[in-house]
Amino acid sequence: MAGASQQIQMQPALARAADAAREPALSAFAGRLMLLWGWQRSLVALVAGALAALAQAPFDFPAIGFVSFPVLVWLLDGAAGDAASGRLRRLRPFFVTGWWFGFGYFVAGLWWVGNAMLVDIEEYAWALPIAVLILPAGLALFYGLAAALARPLWTDGFGRLCALAAAFAVAEWLRGMVLTGFPWNAIGYAAMPVPPMMQSVTMVGMTGMNALTVLAFCLPALLAAPGRRMLVLVALAVLVAAHLGFGYARLALAPQGDGETLSARLVQPSIDQSRKWDAQVRDQIFSTYLEMSARPPEQGREPPKLIVWPETSVPFILQQRPQALTALGEMIQDGQTLLAGAVRFEGEAPTDPSARFYNSIVAVNSAGVLYDAADKVHLVPLGEFVPFADLLGRFGITKLVELPGGFSAGARRHLIEVAPGLRVAPYICYEVIFPGIVAAEAGDARLVVNVTNDAWFGNSPGPYQHLRQAQLRAVEAGRPMLRAANNGISAAIDSYGTIVDALRLDGVGNLDVALPLRPADELRAARPGLVGWSIVALLVLLGAVRRARGSVRMN
Q: Active site includes 162?
């Protein structure tokens, strides 16, 4: 009886493969992929996932998704035919296939994280395999989970695509939550390479974008089946047209004309990461920032009202250097404010075992008074703190930023007033990769400031991907953003995600801009996150209906 049951389970996939093999070109190709198993299926999934990474910045080739995801669908079609008894065992080939797809995607998209270990290779050589292989392997678990979640609703036709799209949306949401979260390069970003294609996130949120992007990418898989091919092309055209049409319409309806602007200066010195904390050159680095900040503006430009330095730009603890605050007061002109990334401590002294350190943005006025500060809330695991530090420390696993006890996380987002009636929402480094965070926390802030130090990652895709995610946070919040990076890419971004001006990666200089403070219009959903989850629920319902109909036909 068990053998007969396994044969029955294999029949639908084998029948699809046999039918597809009789069809020309695409159908035959799909049929061959369905018949793969073992290491061959895993290898193809790995390659498909790696190719999918080309849809992300800086390559911005979303068309590759219409190849990679159909390949994943056809591989899962074959996995559905694997003989196995028991519900959990039937999930295994789906999970394994999804994991290999995710492993390829994250290795190809995040290999540059290993550059951070090369800054001090003698100290952190042990961490290179973690960054290049183990991190992608861990993140790939979420894509394996996505495939496994889709398995109970897997059937012929459109329903299985709905199930897979919904499952990926859930997996991406979990990726932003588990173990403090790391939602870098979510699939939805592949559909938003330019501002006209970024506006849809204001209606459906990142959850909706992840679901709809996977659905659109998977639709060509239906072209391998006989019949209804025109319907597939029409459905794909409708999705793409709605996405592009809304974006162009929203930009066309954006308020035009003169409005309040902020004259600002972003300072990008491109300090080499290996020298950044060298005690012998700290004063020289600080002098470089002072000199660049004090330069007169270009002819025809107003002096900046706001000066922004990158993350941890102050190369010492500012609270211990009153002469440094005096120098800042001499540099900052009346009516100007400096926002600078700095390490802040609380306690009697930095050497005190009970002292707490914070990765912060400090505000300094023309009197040389450090009058406000905002602390980083989301810390980088292994970069700024070590989870389970006592246990991992026994194996020599330490954080990249060496401070006694590591950084402490800020309790909540703290807005900073930089001028009368002008409050900014400060975000440090990778905090801007979390979907919806700025929209939820910005409150009455009229401007977002993001300071970062991407010198860790060298000339790689990392800084470009980081900038792209910062653009999306500005779109979600409907507020302009000033982004200061040590070695780039420093940029001024308007409330629609358009880059007003920027400094190139590894460039040295100031970026003086007159940034419009005009917020984006109200052509957006009141609760895009709720809309996104409604889309996921609808996709699950469609998948379940299709599955139920398939079961009725089999009976």
A: no
